[in-house]
Design a protein that fits this description.
Blueprint (H helix, E strand, L loop, with lengths): L52 H4 L3 E5 L8 H16 L2 E5 L5 E2 L2 E2 L13 E4 L8 H6 L4 E4 L9 H16 L4 E3 L19 E6 L6 H4 L8 E6 L8 H9 L4 E8 L5 H14 L3 E5 L4 H11 L6 H10 L3 E3 L2 H13 L7 E6 L2 H13 L9 H7 L13 E2 L9 H10 L4 E8 L6 H13 L5 E6 L7 H7 L6 E3 L2 H20 L13 H7 L10 H10 L7 E4 L2 H11 L3 E6 L12 E5 L2 H17 L6 E6 L5 E10 L3 E8 L4 H4 L2 E4 L5 H9 L5 H4 L9 H18 L3 E11 L6 E3 L2 E5 L1
Helix pairs in contact: 6-7, 10-16, 13-14, 14-15, 17-18, 19-20, 22-24
Length: 741
């Protein structure tokens, strides 16, 4: 497996662009960020890194409720904590109201009776709440509560958890892990492994086992944080701490929900600034998965599309399976930065190479065609009738002799190739033994990544167990899919961190003049009329059509003359959505008589539908452009979100949208557009001119500003359609819906 690497940090101010062990103590915060800074909505722009050193490496541990009576659950826990404390070099102090000794150690009846300061208290009690004040008075730094029966059980348990959280907060310096946590933090970690380590965070202890067992394959683990219900300490705290640890090469996360979306984003930002990869399994993609996860830890799972967007925005690599979590985290922790984007596939079988190349290309990996000179060089060792353009098919026999190593070295020498992937679908000794040895030797002498896929389901072969897994530089996989997922994540991570700048650094901190204008238009608890919603857009400089609000047929004719034919006429009223379905929109009106008749029809329909109009809009008709939708809504976890996608009447059918979590910059707004399946419409199709993407990006950024400045009073905004005109002509918001909080 991949082993340790050595080198120096790059000179980039915010990003560590390598996976070598990072030197130094806990990192300081990013330059120029004020610890107390808040954005225009009053939310923090920086989350301090909690000092968890005494949690993971305490000097003194108290076990409250300690036992040495065989057969009792507390006895097993006490024994494990004692073994762990011994490895940490910490003293153990049992606390029990009726015992004089536990496992031969003197026992006191209360924490306050201990003669020394306690760093960590392990609470083996059914109700930790009564102990909080005692722990605080004794100035205990950390406590762990294993007790269950809190938010995971329903409303009554959630209320009990809130009381516990409030008590810990009021206690001052005490920090609590749990409740409903487990013993994973007190596992035995191997200390004979070197190289960058994986730090593990789980909300379900059993789900971390596959990553923990990577130690048996030579992959180092440094920490395991089982966060449980997160009444106090949460995933974000450990994420920030691990991102600042010099020994951590990657963070593996299993999450069922998040306590606070903003805290998670700030922690992910810490990792992104430092180039520390975060690989996550986040359950809750389906309604059943979300419901089950919520019942397990009592946390909000969040709308999955928003969670997905949040992770992508901050470079968190989301995978689906625990096998993907362990393989991807292991590669990202220990592989050196890519020297080139190109991937070469080398196999003894043309069929194997073609199969893998299909999967890799479909996943977005770049398999460049080797140039003629390189192909000619390879054909000095490979028969001329075999294809060596990439994938490289050697036919089998060359791997069994001196030619095999020559082929490997020649491929690695190509400057366009940064990764060599060798799928070995099954053992075929002695050739597979020789191939494995050649790959291990080549990996030890190159800075490029070599991945080997050992397809045998047995896994006891010497070539696999000793040669491949015994290599400190090879990345070894068991499946094509996991190899492709991991390599793509590795390339994506380094591409992301190379260009990353924190959106929090430039987030607006004071309201704009637009905000003051917009707030005067708000009607708390009401849905605004289209006319009022467009006034809101105008306040933020978002262009709307020429239009007038009228209350008579005669006025509508005069307005049409001022706006210019052809015109569109629409009913305007608060709480009026889906006007087209009600027949309350008339388009393509070209004469005064048509305008008069349209006014009468619209008002008659409104009376029939019991819609109280504030008037009829006479609007400029826009006939060309790409119909988009730009919106603002609120997520329970992450707060205001901005959506952009393909709009018009089919928006709910196509569901081709991308989500951004404010704050974000222009680069991210462009990346949101790039993720749309219908992006080609903006580029121009079937002879249509390219749309004004610059103007569309500007609208997205202006709606983001609205989300930041009006998020406390604007619940929802939907601009649909926003017509994007040909390049250089801007955008026009043809319709808008706004709901005030």
């Amino acid at each position: 497996m991949l082993g340790s690497t050595h080198g120096t940090l790059t000179t980039r101010p915010r990003v560590v662009a390598c996976a070598e062990p990072r030197t130094g103590a806990v990192r300081e915060r990013a330059d120029g960020v004020d610890d107390g800074a808040v954005d225009v909505s009053g939310r923090p722009l920086y989350a301090g890194v909690p000092d968890l050193e005494r949690f993971f490496r305490p000097e003194a541990v108290a076990v409250i409720g300690a036992s040495d009576v065989e057969g009792r659950p507390n006895t097993g826990i006490t024994r494990q904590v004692m073994r762990w404390a011994e490895r940490m070099g910490a003293s153990v102090h049992p606390v029990h109201p009726t015992r004089e000794t536990v496992f031969g150690l003197p026992c006191v009846t209360a924490v306050g009776e201990l003669a020394r300061d306690i760093d960590l208290a392990v609470l083996l009690v059914a109700d930790p709440l009564p102990l909080v004040s005692e722990l605080a008075e004794a100035k205990v730094k950390f406590a762990v509560a294993f007790a269950s029966g809190f938010a995971e059980t329903g409303a009554e348990g959630a209320a009990a958890q809130r009381k516990l959280a409030d008590a810990v907060r009021d206690a001052g310096g005490l920090r609590l892990l749990g409740p409903n946590t487990n013993l994973n933090a007190f596992e035995s970690f191997r200390d004979d492994l070197d190289g960058p380590a994986i730090a593990l965070i789980t909300q379900s202890g059993h789900q971390g086992r596959p990553v923990f067992t990577l130690q048996e394959l030579g992959i180092r683990l440094s920490h395991w944080a089982p966060t449980g219900n997160e009444a106090d300490l949460e995933t974000a705290d450990f994420l920030s701490y691990f991102a600042n640890r010099p020994e951590v090469g990657a963070i593996a996360l299993y999450a069922e929900g998040f306590k606070d979306g903003r805290s998670f984003l700030l922690a992910a930002d810490q990792a992104a600034r430092r180039g520390v990869p975060v690989v996550a399994v986040k359950v809750g993609r389906t309604e059943k998965g979300a419901r089950t996860a919520a019942s397990h830890t009592g946390k909000l799972t969040g709308a999955d599309a928003v969670v997905d967007a949040a992770m992508r925005q901050y470079g968190v690599i989301r995978v689906d399976g625990l096998d993907e979590l362990q393989d991807t985290a292991a590669l990202l922790a220990r592989a050196r930065p890519p020297q080139a984007e190109g991937v070469a596939v080398y196999s003894i079988s043309g069929g194997t190479g073609a199969h893998f190349a299909d999967l890799a290309s479909a996943a977005g990996l770049t398999l460049p065609t080797l140039d003629e000179a390189k192909q000619a060089e390879l054909h000095t060792w490979i028969p001329g009738y075999l294809d060596v353009s990439n994938p490289v098919d050697c036919g089998g026999h060359p791997v069994g002799d001196w030619r095999g190593r020559k082929i490997i070295d020649a491929i690695l020498a190509d400057p366009a190739i940064g990764t060599l992937i060798v799928p070995i679908t099954g053992p075929f000794p002695p050739m597979s033994d020789r191939l494995a040895a050649d790959l291990a030797e080549a990996a030890a002498r190159t800075d490029k990544l070599i991945c080997v896929i050992w397809g045998s389901p047995v896994g006891t072969e010497d070539a696999y167990r000793h040669t491949l897994l015994g290599s400190s530089r090879l990345a070894v996989f068991r499946t094509f899919g996991n190899c492709i997922t991991s390599v793509r994540a590795w390339l994506d991570h380094h591409r992301f961190t190379r260009d990353y700048t924190s959106p929090f650094d430039d987030a607006p901190r004071t309201p704009s003049p637009s905000a003051r204008k917009a707030r005067a238009l708000m009607r708390p608890g009401e849905q605004l009329s289209e006319h009022a919603a467009k006034q809101l857009l105008r306040a933020y400089g978002i262009r709307v059509p020429r239009e007038q609000l009228v209350t008579s047929a005669a006025a509508s004719v005069r307005a049409a003359g001022l706006v210019g034919y052809p015109v569109v006429m629409k009913a305007s009223a608060p709480r009026l959505a889906h006007k087209t379905e009600l027949g309350l929109v008339k388009v393509g009106l070209t004469s005064a008589s048509q305008v008069r008749e349209a006014y009468r029809e619209l008002t008659d329909i409104a009376r029939y539908e019991s819609v109280e109009l504030d008037g009829v809009l006479v609007c400029q008709m826009i006939e060309r452009g790409v119909e988009m939708v730009v919106g603002l809504s609120h997520d329970d976890l992450f707060g205001p979100t901005v959506t952009v996608g393909i709009g018009g009447v089919l928006v709910e059918v196509l569901r081709d949208v991308a989500v951004g979590i404010p704050p974000f910059d222009e680069r991210h707004a462009r990346s949101m557009l790039g993720r749309l399946r219908g992006k080609a419409l903006l580029d121009g199709v079937r002879g249509a001119p390219a749309a004004d993407v610059e103007a569309l990006v500007e609208v997205v950024l202006r709606v983001q500003r609205m989300a930041l400045e009006l998020g406390d009073s604007l619940a929802e905004l939907d601009i649909n359609p926003l017509v994007v005109l040909p390049h250089g002509q801007g955008t026009v918001a043809l319709d808008a819906l706004a709901v005030c909080r």
